[in-house]
Design brief:
The chain contains 9 helices and 12 strands. It is an alpha+beta fold and 488 residues long. It has 3 domains: 213 residues, CAP (Pathogenesis-related Protein p14a), CATH 3.40.33; 97 residues; 52 residues, no CATH class. β1 and β2 form a beta hairpin. α4 runs antiparallel to α5. The two termini are 45 Å apart.
Length: 488
């Protein structure tokens, strides 16, 4: 069952006037809250709930020092008109997650009840259950570095106060505080808020019964929503795991195919090299045999020639000297024949060498074309892998954004501390999400990194602040912060 709010308008105004009567004395209540912190979580014993804060105990300690410097202020008088204005503002943001209100609409609400003089301030608090908790929330201003909500409580020159407190459909409760110097109620010049007496015991029981029934219904709806969200997270987690396994299997299969393809290419290259080497050896062997055959033929021809010369010489020795000239011509003719044969052999050698060089050039060109084809093939495979990797990274980024949207929490406060009506309302919207960056995506030199996103809406514009908390490889810590306007 959800917690029951015990605060009401009268108690909140009385609590604010207690604060204004003696701010240093009020530090005792704030100091008591500092004992309930564990890190950034505060556990209130009277409510038995845990609340996640943004700054932890620091703003409470700062508030204590701030109150010690403040002096007693005038009692604020409840204004019927200001209470009506606060109530209409609260009703206009009952379903809002940010508490944002249109300034033109805000001015129309004020004009509906009358007009103000001097200073006019407004502030909102969400999630307070007791009058003391609501006032301390306004003082501490957790998450607001300007602590701007203190002005409506302790600002100088304030005389009138209006408060609205009730249920909120997102944050359980809402409290709207409006203060000003003077307000001219056009329907009631006295403008005094009269609080009704407490209802009878029987009426209280009926009201408590109705509230309990409503709380049980809300609690049941909350449990059902949590179950649905848990089931949705489980399904998304299972899908992510299945997708991860599928990607790993595809990578393993691709790696296996690549290895097999490389092995096949290497084996093909080896066989081609062996064939080329064998063909080269066979060609050299045939060339060697041909040259050896030619050498033997030349030797045999030379031997035959010598034998013929010997025979001719023997014949010439037997013949008369008149045959000498004939033998000499025959010898010269034989020499010319041998010279022609020698020149013919050298020509054939040159032709063979030329043919060998041409074949080597053709082989080199074939190998160059093959190498270029392999390079084009590898480039195409690399391009396909990069495109596939980009698609996978895009899918992961989309899934990551969906998960971050489910983790966002909202906390909104609004106030103003200026007389200028155009700047009466100042709203800050803060949405935080946290992410631990995977190891394979860490920058160089970083051991681990946590990324937090903060979206701040200020002055009608949205700003995104990204904070990187890094732990370096040497153990040191480093924080980087980037802020950018999203509405430019």
């Amino acid at each position: 069952m959800s917690l029951k709010a015990t605060a009401n308008i009268k108690e909140i105004i009385e609590e604010i006037n207690k604060l204004r009567a003696d701010p240093p004395e009020y530090t005792k209540k704030v100091e008591e809250y500092t004992h309930y912190f564990t890190g950034n979580i505060i556990k209130l014993p009277n409510l038995n709930i845990k609340i996640q804060t943004q700054e932890g105990v620091a703003p409470y300690t700062e508030t204590i020092e701030y109150l010690k410097t403040k002096e007693k202020a005038k009692v604020l008088v409840p204004s019927k008109a200001l209470c009506g204005i606060a109530k209409e503002i609260a009703e206009s943001v009952i379903d809002s997650e940010t508490g944002e209100i249109d300034e033109e609409y805000h001015e129309k609400i004020i004009e509906k009840y009358g007009s103000f003089e001097g200073k006019f301030t407004r502030a909102m608090d969400f999630g307070g259950f007791t009058s003391e908790q609501v006032v301390i929330n306004f003082l501490v201003c957790d998450g607001d570095p300007d602590r701007s909500q203190r002005e409506p409580l302790l600002g100088d020159g304030l005389n009138k106060i209006g408060v609205a407190f009730g249920k909120h459909n997102v944050y359980s409760t809402i409290c709207v505080l409006v203060t000003c110097t003077k307000f001219n109620n056009k329907d009631d010049p006295d403008d005094i808020m009269i609080f009704e007496e407490n209802p009878t015991e029987e009426a209280q029981k009926v009201e408590e019964k109705q509230e309990n029934s409503e709380q049980e219904k809300l609690e049941k709806e909350r449990i059902e929503r949590e179950k649905a969200e848990q089931e949705k997270e489980r399904i998304e987690r299972e899908k992510a795991e299945q997708e991860k396994e599928r990607i790993e299997r595809e990578k393993a299969e691709q790696e296996k195919e690549r290895i097999e393809r490389e092995k096949a290419e290497q084996e093909k290259e080896r066989i081609e090299r062996e064939k080329a080497e064998q063909a080269k050896l066979e060609k050299e062997r045939a060339e060697k045999e041909r040259l050896e055959q030619e050498r033997l033929e030349q030797k045999r021809a030379e031997q035959e020639r010598l034998e013929r010369e010997k025979a001719e010489k023997e014949k010439l020795e037997k013949e008369v000297l008149e045959q000498h000239e004939k033998d000499k011509r025959a010898l010269e003719e034989e020499k010319e024949k041998l010279e022609r044969e020698r020149l013919k052999i050298e020509e054939e050698k040159k032709n063979l060498e030329k043919r060998r060089l041409e074949m080597e050039e053709e082989k080199r060109k074939e190998e160059e074309e093959k190498r270029k084809a392999e390079e084009r093939k590898k480039e195409e495979e690399k391009r396909k892998k990069e495109e596939k990797k980009k698609e996978e990274e895009k899918k992961k980024e989309e899934e990551k954004k969906k998960k971050e949207l489910n983790k966002k929490k909202y906390q909104a406060v609004s106030t103003t501390n200026t007389i200028d009506r155009a700047n009466i309302f100042k709203l800050k919207k803060k949405i935080q999400s946290y992410e631990t960056v995977p190891k394979d995506q860490l920058p160089e030199g970083v051991a681990s990194m946590t990324k937090s996103d903060t979206i701040v809406i200020e002055g009608g514009k949205r700003y995104k602040k990204i904070i990187y908390n890094k732990v370096m490889l040497d153990g040191s810590k480093k924080t980087e912060e980037v802020k950018q306007c999203l509405d430019n």
